[in-house]
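Dear support,

I submitted the protein below through the web form. The confirmation email said the job was done, but the results page showed an empty box. After a refresh the structure appeared. I'm attaching both so you can tell me whether what I see now is the final result or a partial one.
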Amino acid sequence: MLTIRGLRADRIAMIVIGSLFASLSMHLFIAPAGILSGGLSGLALLLHYTLKAPIGLSVLVLNIPVFYLGIKKLQRGYIYRSLIGAGCFVAFLSGWDALLDIKEPLVDDLLLSALFGGVVNGIGLGLTFRGRGSVGGTDIIALVLNRAYSFSLGSGAFAFNALPVIVGLVLFDLKLIGYTLVTMFVSAYVVDRVQAGLIRSKVVTIISAKHEEISQAIIARIGRGVTLLHGEGAFSHSSKQVILTTVSLTQLTKLKDIVAELDPTAFMVVSDASEVLGKGFAHVRDDDR
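What the results page shows now:
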């Protein structure tokens, strides 16, 4: 794998592209509509709306103490990648200010601005997270609090993301705060989807007396691996073989057809897999370069 001074090039590419998307979301949809966002970007927007401060400059200044703390507490690789992400984010924001003078929302409907802003921002942040970095701000603060004080990552991120919204309740129209929440929820959903990947996977557990036939059919007709687990019925205490397999969402219907064909009385449980790593799915990458 190509590396640049010890940093993997594919991760750097994802972080740079993600920063580009996040800056476009801010410049094209969120800021022109007067909507806020969470974290340091939200604080930068507050400074922009109230004091006309440039968003890029505000993000840069607010991130300085954050990275000072992060360098002392967090892994060097993550900090380097986040510095790249934050630097690109600030550079793109400043560049758009110089190149594109957008004063009015691109769409008249504030709800559409909130939705588009959330989607584009979610794509950007999701890509930076997949590159194992960030654009600075809330994520670094939450990690520092977690490492230093065992503070919950979720609680720390929520507290700092909520801060601009709480301040906005005092300064702005309640309707705009509502659109801000729409943007934040949409962005969070898209971040999860981008991080997990577009291919959704299902974990399937099957209990059947015809476990051997079903297992062979899954391997031959779907091309997925199968694990047989030894189980015991709690009521009858009879020995059972439990089939465990993971398939993509598009393969699930074919798997159901196989089970229905070979054993209509089989017991099958289907559950979501937030992430699947290994042969046939995403590669396992455990290095922190």
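Response: this is the final, complete result; the empty box was a page-load delay. The chain has two domains: 3-196, 201-273.
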